[in-house]
Automatic annotation (TrEMBL):
This is Small multidrug resistance pump. It is found in: Cell membrane. It is a multi-pass membrane protein. Keywords: Cell membrane, Membrane, Transmembrane, Transmembrane helix, Transport. The lineage of its organism: Bacteria, Bacillati, Actinomycetota, Actinomycetes, Micrococcales. It comes from Rudaeicoccus suwonensis. GO terms for cellular component: plasma membrane.
Amino acid sequence: MTAAAVSRWWTLTAADSALSYCDAMNSGISWGTWATLGGAIVLEVMATLSLRASDGMQKWIWAAPVGVGYLGSFICLSVVLRQGMPIGVAYAVWSGVGVAFTALLGALFFHEALTAKIGIGMALIIGGVVLIQASAQSH
């Protein structure tokens, strides 16, 4: 097999895998629902980081982003559930991705520790979310 043939095979295999993943993620749920869930995650992470920045609500300027973020996140999450996403999938993705992003951004903005154990924990969370999503598709 020539290098060009290997390259073409790899490109087609990678593209097929990406399309299969996209089909799996969609699994009858609209991209709008997934986007709304993404919004819920962004708002929840923003609220949690704002809560950290508030220094135990000693800095009142952060109260508005905390309240707006959490309220908006729960509103978006309720819309996602109303649009038919199973609660187990929605909550697993919302909480799992939220935890991972919060840990990463906490390390970036607040110089909090990001150890190998934390990395392994985040990988396990992401793996659990993938398993829950895969399980939901099989039913």
